[in-house]
Amino acid sequence: MEFILASSNPHKAEEFSLLFEGKLKVLPAPSSLEVDETGVTFQENAYLKAQSYFKKFKVPTLADDSGLVLEGLPELLGVQSARFAPELPSYTDKCQKLLDIYQEKGIKERGAYFVCVLCFYLSDEEVYFFEGRMKGDIANEISGAHGFGYDPVFIPEGQTVSVANLPEWKNEFSHRARAVKNALSFFKENVDKPHKKL
Ligand code: IMP
Description:
Layout: E1 2-5, H1 10-19, E2 25-28, H2 42-57, E3 61-70, H3 91-105, E4 111-123, E5 126-138, E6 154-156, H4 167-173, H5 175-190
Helix pairs in contact: 4-5
Inosinic acid binds near residues 68, 81, 82, 150 and 151.
């Protein structure tokens, strides 16, 4: 099965292809589209992206939406994770700002989780969603040189250091890896069965 990826980031298609281990092929879209991510859930935003690319290119499309949900500050990131503190140029600055907010507001609840939702848009009648989560806590300080985004301030459950120190672990257990595993096990069970529409 082959999908185009509804994303303007060419590295993402490569990353997904690796995660799918050749079992599903993910190609960059022929060109990128501006899609307003106006949804209030990860599912809605993934759907909006997948639908826009499907309508334009008329081929099976994969879209993802992801972000970090903070239990002590539920309104702050979530579906807005990519748009937090737009005045700050780097994620190191954004991570520091996040830690400062916890400190200034005296927030003790540091639980958090990353979410990744995948939307496979095969046709207007056939759309599948898969989700993966990675639970943990917001650290007290920035650490680690791997990964991206909020990795340096996120300590996964069962670990003692931030996910930016755990690149191999992350490849296997991240929210994205878990969503991909869920998708793969579904497609493995449902492809090649004559009664299924896939
Ligand atoms: P998008 O799914 O590419 O729109 O990313 C949403 C936001 O969540 C971005 O700000 C990313 O930095 C953040 N994010 C998503 N996944 C991760 C991750 O694995 N590590 C760190 N930040 C992430």
